[in-house]
Design goal:
The complex is a heterodimer. By secondary structure, chain A is mostly beta strands. Chain A has 2 helices and 12 strands, in the order ααββββββββββββ. Chain A has helices at residues 7-12, 23-26, and strands at residues 30-33, 38-47, 52-59, 62-67, 71-74, 78-80, 92-94, 100-109, 115-122, 125-130, 134-137, 141-143. In chain A, the strands form 2 sheets. Chain A has a 6-stranded mixed beta sheet, with no helix packed on it. In chain A, strands 10-9-8-7-12-11 form a 6-stranded mixed beta sheet, with no helix packed on it. Chain A starts with 6 loop residues before the first helix and ends with a strand. The model of chain A has no long low-confidence stretch (mean pLDDT 89). Chain B is elongated and about 55 Å long. Chain B is 3% helix and 51% strand. Chain B contains 1 helix and 12 strands; from the N terminus they run H-E-E-E-E-E-E-E-E-E-E-E-E. In chain B, the strands form 2 sheets. A 6-stranded mixed beta sheet of chain B has the order 4-3-2-1-6-5. In chain B, strands 10-9-8-7-12-11 form a 6-stranded mixed beta sheet, with no helix packed on it. The chains are: A mainly beta, B mainly beta. Chains A and B meet through strand 5 of A and strand 6 and strand 11 of B.
Chain lengths: 144, 137
């Protein structure tokens, strides 16, 4: 049986094709994290080579790949299970007393690629802050 | 017994940044309101920016007076107006028109949808960020 469908037949098909999504339906869609932060807009998708790997978003002028495992739902917006590390860049960091510590300029990962901490710059100085010292990450970052 | 370290002055409050529960900077504290009869601080005024309204924040919404900033414990309802509302399934419901209150406590969001208006129980809010995420399909 031919696996080449006309669009009209595809629309009528059920089974595994019922919940399929076309690139045209997600291109340009806004991506948000489950905690309500904007994570950019979809500009591309990634396949390898026959199955869907994830989406490419443009966030503050740069492009990032988001693995499909982080995608929680597709609707008018694409909702991610969690905030992406790239969104930490540029965030302001405050300590527990509300004193400004600096801005995030780098994400630090361990040898396994796991998030380990952030590098913060204030003026000409930089310092690394481990993830254990971070209390809250939302629009900005608050330390413990 | 009052410890010296627990005492702060106007200088420690005025001109400081005011930080929302989502770590967003709301603005700068510009005024202190004191009930002259009860001799207690009742709130602060926050300058939220050029050509924007000054917000009054009641003392019960202030979580902490830090050395560098003032932390709020709740999100001012005024700031919810105009925010997009999206379900956890990614469905866009609309924008907040108003926050319905009962005895000053929020009970619902009135959302402007394509069809008109919809009321969402305030307890269904999952998170407030750039957008408001609510439970539901």
């Amino acid at each position: 049986m031919s696996k080449v469908w006309s669009l009209e037949d595809w629309d009528k098909a059920g089974g595994k094709y019922k919940y399929s999504i076309f690139f045209s339906q997600i291109k340009g869609k806004e991506v948000i994290s489950k905690d309500g932060e904007r994570m950019g807009k979809v500009v591309d998708v990634v396949f390898s080579p026959t199955y869907f790997l994830g989406v490419v978003v443009k966030y503050k002028g740069k492009k990032y790949v988001i693995d499909k495992e982080y995608i929680y739902s597709y609707g008018d917006k694409i909702v991610l299970r969690e905030r992406m590390l790239f969104s930490y860049l540029g965030k302001k960091v405050f300590n527990a007393e509300g004193e400004y510590v600096g801005k995030v300029v780098e994400i630090v990962r361990d040898k396994n690629g796991e998030f380990r901490g952030i590098v913060v710059r204030k003026g000409f100085s930089k310092r690394e802050i481990s993830k254990g010292k971070i209390k809250l990450i939302k629009t900005n970052i608050i330390l413990r | 017994m009052i410890l010296l370290g627990d005492i702060i002055t106007c200088e420690d409050i005025l001109g400081k940044e005011v930080i929302l529960p989502d770590a967003r900077v709301l603005g700068i504290a510009t005024k202190l309101y004191i009930d002259k009869n009860k001799k207690k601080i009742v709130g602060i005024s926050v300058d939220t920016g050029f050509m924007r309204a000054e917000l009054f924040v009641g003392i019960k919404h202030i979580k902490k007076f830090g050395k560098g900033a003032i932390f709020l414990s709740t999100y001012p309802f005024e700031l919810l107006k105009g925010k997009e509302v999206v379900t956890t399934q990614g469905r866009r419901l609309g924008k907040v028109r108003k926050v319905k209150r009962d005895n000053k406590e929020p009970i619902a969001l009135i959302i402007e949808t394509r069809e008109g208006h919809e009321e969402i129980d305030y307890k269904k809010i999952v998170e407030i960020g750039d957008v408001i995420v609510v439970e539901g399909k």
